[in-house]
Specification:
This is Mitochondrial ATP synthase subunit G protein. By secondary structure, this protein is an all-alpha fold. It is built from four helices and no strands. The two termini are about 30 Å apart.
Length: about 120
């Protein structure tokens, strides 16, 4: 176990050195490739306009998401009605999805408690 920890530390150190050496050039290359998306000058008015565009674009996508939700619910209902035809793969996927939901719930609880495991008050 200790040898695995030492290996992990050395890999993390190597990754850190790689990022320190190549991170700036990657950042500049990324900005250069995506310069058409950069708004110059970055004024408060432009940022406000972009945030409103994002908000209303997301609001406009709600009806499509709502329809997709009900399609998924109908699919789940049909799976429950036809339990005899249920495959092990489908049951496994459902179990993993439930486990993922529980993990996100636990993560949210921990964050809500101020990153403590024992209680809501530090």
């Amino acid at each position: 176990m200790a040898s695995k920890l030492v290996q992990l530390q050395s890999k993390a150190c190597q990754a850190s050195k790689f990022v320190a050496k190549h991170g700036t050039s990657y950042y500049k290359q990324l900005l250069e490739q995506n310069k058409q998306y950069i708004q110059e000058p970055a004024t408060i008015e432009k940022c406000s306009e972009l945030s409103k565009q994002l908000l209303y674009t997301r609001l406009a996508s709600i009806p499509g998401r709502y329809q997709t939700l009900w399609k998924e619910v109908d699919y789940a209902k049909s799976l429950l009605k036809n339990r005899a035809n249920l495959k092990v793969e489908d049951a496994g996927m459902a179990a993993l999805f439930g486990l993922e939901c529980f993990a996100w719930y636990c993560a949210g609880e921990i964050v809500g408690r101020g990153f403590t495991f024992t209680g809501y008050y530090p």
